[in-house]
Each structure stands twice: as C-alpha cells, then as structure tokens.
Amino acid sequence: MNDLQALKAQLVEAVENHQDELIAFCSKLIQIPSVNPPGDTTEITAFIENYLNDVGITYQKYEAADKMFNLVASIGNGEGKELVYCGHTDVVPVGDLSKWDFDPFSGEVKDGWMLGRGASDMKAGLAGIIFATKLLKKLNIELPGKLTLAIVPDEETGGEFGVPWLLERGYVQGDGCLIAEPSSPLNPTIGQKGSYWFELEVRGEPGHGSLSPLAGRNAIVDAIRAIQEIRTLWDVEITIPEEVKPLIEVSKKYMREVEKDRLKYQEVLEKITVNIGTIEGGTKSNVIPDYCKVQVDCRLPFGITQEEVTEILTTKLDGLAIDYSIQRFGFKSVANYTPAENPVCQSIVENISYVTGQEAYGVMQWASSDARHFRQYDIPVLQYGPAYLPSIHGYNEKVRVEDIVRCAKVYITAAVDFLYQK
What we know:
α2 (19-31) crosses α4 and α9 (343-356) packs across α11. By secondary structure, the protein is α/β, with parallel strands linked by helices. The protein contains 11 helices and 16 strands. The chain has 2 domains: 3-192 and 335-420, Zn peptidases (Aminopeptidase, 3-Layer(aba) Sandwich), CATH 3.40.630; 194-236 and 271-333, 2-Layer Sandwich (Alpha-Beta Plaits). Keywords: Cobalt, Hydrolase, Metal-binding, Zinc. This is Probable succinyl-diaminopimelate desuccinylase.
C-alpha cells in the first residue's frame, strides 16, 4: 500500500470513529430554521462559524444581502491546486405542518434516519463537507494546494446572493468543485438541464359577469388559450449535440437500472418540460377579469438556447391575438455539464467506488443547481450528496444516517486524491 492509499484508509477510519460528531452536527443544522424565503441565515451561519473556530479554520464572512451570509473558509498550504466544496444553508418552506409526521425542525435520529426539513436538501451534505474539512484540520493532514469551503445562503429561490455573488467578486476560484447536493449513492450528477422560468401576464377588459362572454374580454379565458400553446413546448423537436449523447445514454441506463421508478421519465432528458406552477387572476366571480398572471417553469435539454425558446414561445402566443407580456424570473440557464474524464469528476467517482466497493458513474440531472454558475466561470463541477430522493422538498423529509457517513468518507478521500494529483 502506498502512502496515499494508507492516508485514505486512515481518513476513512477517522470518519468512522468520529461519526457521532458528524451526526450531531447535522442534527443541529436541521434544528436551526433557515427557510428561504425569507432567507435569514444569521443563526445557522453563526453556528457554523463556531464549529470552524473549534480547530482554528480561518474564514471570510460576507453579507451579500440583508441577513444572507456567505462563508469562505480554506485549509492547506496553498501551493498547488484548489478544490472547492460548496453547500447552501437555506431550505424550502415546510408547507402544511399538519401533513408532517414529525417536527420538521427536530433533527431527530430515528430508526437509522435523520429527520427534518433540509435533511436531504441539503444540510446532510453541508454537514459532510464541513465535517470532512474540520477533520482534516484536526488530524493535521498536510494538504498540498487548498481545500476551500463555500457556504452560501441563497440557492433555493435561484437567487443571486450565494454562489454567483461570490464568483462575480472573485471570492471563490478553483480548479474543481464539488457541490454536496442530493444525489444517488453511486451516481453523482455531472450535468444539468437548463432553466427557463417566466411569468405570463394576460390583460383583458372588465365588465359585468352577467354579460360574459358578450361583454368585455376575459383575461383568464385568454390565459387558458395561452397555456394550451405553452404546453406544446414539450412537442418541440430538438437535435441533441453529439458530444453529450453518451451522457444522455448513461443517464437513461441509470433510470432503467438504478432509480427504476424513474424509467417513465427518460424522455425529460431530451424534451422541454413545462410546469404551469401558479395562476392568479380576476377580482370577483361576477366581474369579467381584466388580468391573469401565470408562472411557468420550463427545463431545457441540450440542443436549444434560451433565445430560441423565447422565439418559439413568442410566435405561438402572437398567433393568439391576445394582449400579453412575458417576464423572466428565477433560474436562468442552458443545459451544462462537466466531462466525466475531468479530474474532479474522476476523484469523486473513484472514491465512491473506493468507499463502497461498487461501480460508480456520473449522470445527468433533470433539474438545475448552482453548478451552472461554476461552469460559467470555467470551474469544473459535479454534485454528490446524501439524500432520500423521494422526500426532497416534500413532507417528512429525511435521509439515512449511513448515507451521511458514506458521503463524508467520499468527501475526505476525494479531497486528498484531487489535491495530490499533479
């Protein structure tokens, strides 16, 4: 066994021996509400600061917006490559409390599960990368280069005060990045579809409801016609670029053989998906509505740009002869990926196999994430984190404790491999 392999074996054993600290840390993160909106990360950021201070890890703290804090912390000698481990502190709202079987902010461990909002997305992953970095520091492991933590506050709303804010100002750079977002145990995500969110506003003419449809112009009725056209974006034929076809095919394999309940969703990898998310319009049942607003979430495959979608959409809606406007908001990106042969992808994938003893490979995600921002700055990136995927953003969110520990082992060994590579 060479020195590097011996070091990795030592680190896996150290994670095993300190796993109670990891689980307690994760539990406390869940117990601190950091719901976005509103996005106040004051308390959780202070808690993480204290955790880093325990072993003297230095960091910079940036308040990008009111009560939205970024932390950037580093260890290593700084004389080589830089690896970034990134995670977000914000979580989505809990929704109807009566539909939870437990307190969403309990952070309770029960029957091998960590329970609570953010358990899978993504406080377990966040705990893992912070814990792994702290453990390397505690053990006085001499790392070449630099391992940097980028802990951000504003991911769940697609906001601009987290990763993009740090990258724009040069506060985070790197030769590779791992985002501890939820993933399959053996299949990190190395590519994402693009995002195209927009609000459609349709304007009509008011009138007395007793005279409809002969009087006025019903904005809701016109919006329904518009929705019917918007939904046909799914039918747009798209030519997938040759260079990403292997990624599409291996992702379909994953959906067939691993997440078998996803088999029926294979088409989404090559289609524009359309979700009519919210509708708001009218004032009273007896008044012809003079406005209707519809928010839509589309995800874009490889092979089509946002500008092309706008052109297709405008052509469809112009043909209806309605009074409308479109305003983009939220997530905005085109499909993007990091090649599987990139060193950061290889380091994570190979160490998943090292830790689990099973074959691992990267796949494509049908949603979007902060990964797109890193790729815009030419920083290769992938996602790998503990999760019980069916519970993400839903009621009774949870994650297996063993998955939290497994991912921490991957994080700590992959950091060693990546930073020691010439």
